[in-house]
Design brief:
The chain is an alpha/beta fold. It has one domain (5-24, 76-352): Metal-dependent hydrolases (TIM Barrel, Alpha-Beta Barrel), CATH 3.20.20. The chain contains 16 helices and ten strands. A four-stranded parallel sheet has the order 1-2-3-4, with helices on both faces. It has a four-stranded parallel sheet with strand order 5-6-9-10. α7 (156-165) links the parallel β3 and β4.
C-alpha cells in the first residue's frame, strides 16, 4: 500500500548528511541578506526557493553552486550562525527527524572576523537552542555537528585539530567536502593520520563527482567510517545491474564492513551522480546488502526535505519496510556511542511499528 504524505511525515527519520549552508529558510536568507546589503536573485521567499531549485535541476554545476555564495555571505556572524543552526534543527524536527548530523566548514564563516572556535561555538549554541525549542513544540530531536575541511584548500590539518579540540559537545566527526574530482583525499594525508591516531570518526565525500577509486581512497587512506554519497561505488562491481556480479576490493570492503553510504537521492541526480531517482544505483546497492541511508544534502538548494526524499523513493516502489531498513541503517551509522546508537535504533523500531 502506498504511503500517504501524512504517513511519511509521521515516520521517524535519521539524517546523517545535511549541510548547514545548504538548508537555510528562504525568508531568513532574504532578511539576513538585506541587513548586510547582499543582493539575491529574488526577495520573495517562494520565488527564491524556486530559483535555487531550478538552478539545481539545470544540469549546470556552476548554477547549482551559486546558491552557496548567497548562503555563506549571511553566515559570517555568531548571531546569524546561531539562528541558522537553530532553525535547521527546528525544521528537521518538524519533518519527523529524530536525529540529525549537521555539517559545515568553519573556514567558510570567518570573513566577518570570527575565529574558527567562535564559529564552532556559535553553531553549537544554535543547535542546542533548536533542540530545546523543538522539545517545547512537542518534537523530540537530537542533533550534532560534523566539521568539514574544504578539499580544494589547505586548512585540513587546522580543521582536524579544531574537531579534536571540540570532540564531544561541539563535534562528532570530521569530513572533507567541496570539489571531489581533481582534489583527492590523499592531499589531506596529514589530517587523516592525525584523526586516525586520535580515533576520531571520519566521513568523506566520495563517489559523487569521482569514481570508485575516490571511495577506495576514502576508506583506505582516510579510514572513513561512512561515505558521503558513495553512489559510484557501483563502478567497482563488474556486471552491476545484471545477474552475475563480481565485486571489486573497494565494493567488497564497503559491503563486508557495512560502511554506511550517505545517499542523497535528489542531489545525486542534480549533480549527475545518478541518472534519475528511478534509475539510481542506490536501489541495486541496497538489494546487494550495502548499508544505504537516505539524506537531504542541501534542503534549500535542492528543494527537498527528508519527507520529500522518502516520497520520491516510494514513487519508485519503496515501501514502509524499505524506509525502515534505511533509517535503521542510519541509526546504527550515527556517530554516537554504541549504547546511544542502540537507543536511537530502538526509537526507530518503535516509530515504524515493525518487527526485525
Amino acid at each position: 500500500m502506498t504511503l500517504t504524505s501524512d504517513e511519511i511525515l509521521a515516520l521517524p527519520k535519521v539524517v546523517l548528511h545535511d549541510h548547514l549552508d545548504g538548508g537555510l529558510r528562504p525568508a531568513t536568507l532574504i532578511e539576513l541578506a538585506a541587513e548586510i546589503g547582499h543582493e539575491l536573485p529574488s526577495t520573495e521567499p517562494d520565488e527564491l526557493a524556486r530559483i535555487f531549485a531550478e538552478n539545481a535541476n539545470s544540469g549546470d554545476l556552476v548554477r547549482y553552486l551559486e546558491a552557496f555564495a548567497h548562503t555563506t555571505a549571511v553566515m559570517q556572524t555568531a548571531v546569524n550562525l546561531r539562528r541558522v543552526a537553530r532553525e535547521a534543527v527546528l525544521d528537521l524536527a518538524a519533518d519527523g527527524v529524530i536525529y540529525a548530523e549537521l555539517r559545515y566548514a568553519p573556514e567558510q564563516h570567518v570573513d566577518g572576523g570570527l575565529s574558527l572556535q567562535e564559529v564552532v561555538e556559535a553553531v553549537q549554541e544554535g543547535i542546542e537552542e533548536g533542540v530545546s525549542e523543538a522539545l517545547e513544540a512537542g518534537f523530540a530531536i537530537r542533533a550534532a555537528a560534523i566539521l568539514d575541511a574544504m578539499r580544494h584548500l589547505d586548512r585540513s590539518v587546522e580543521i582536524a585539530e579544531l574537531a579534536l579540540a571540540n570532540r564531544g559537545r561541539c563535534c562528532v566527526a570530521f569530513d572533507i567536502a567541496g570539489p571531489e574530482l581533481g582534489f583527492p583525499a590523499s592531499n589531506h594525508r596529514e589530517a587523516f593520520q592525525l584523526l586516525r591516531e586520535a580515533h576520531m570518526p571520519v566521513t568523506i565525500h566520495a563517489g559523487e563527482a569521482d569514481g570508485a577509486g575516490s571511495v577506495g581512497e576514502a576508506l583506505g587512506l582516510g579510514s572513513a567510517r561512512r561515505i558521503g554519497h558513495g553512489v559510484r561505488i557501483h563502478e567497482d562491481i563488474e556486471g552491476f545491474g545484471g545477474e552475475e556480479l563480481v565485486l571489486g576490493p573497494i565494493a567488497q570492503h564497503a559491503l563486508d564492513m557495512q560502511i554506511p553510504l550517505e545517499v542523497c537521492p535528489t542531489s545525486n541526480v542534480q549533480t549527475a551522480a545518478a541518472p534519475s531517482i528511478e534509475a539510481h544505483p542506490m536501489h541495486e546497492l541496497r538489494n546487494l546488502g550495502f548499508a544505504v541511508t537516505v539524506n537531504t544534502d542541501n534542503r534549500l538548494v535542492s528543494g527537498v526535505s527528508m519527507s520529500s526524499e522518502f516520497a520520491a523513493l516510494v514513487e519508485t516502489g519503496w515501501d514502509k519496510e524499505d524506509l525502515f531498513e534505511a533509517t535503521l541503517a542510519a541509526a546504527w551509522g550515527a556517530f554516537l556511542p554504541y549504547d546511544e546508537k542502540a537507543d536511537l535504533a530502538e526509537l526507530v523500531i518503535e516509530g515504524y511499528g515493525l518487527e526485525l
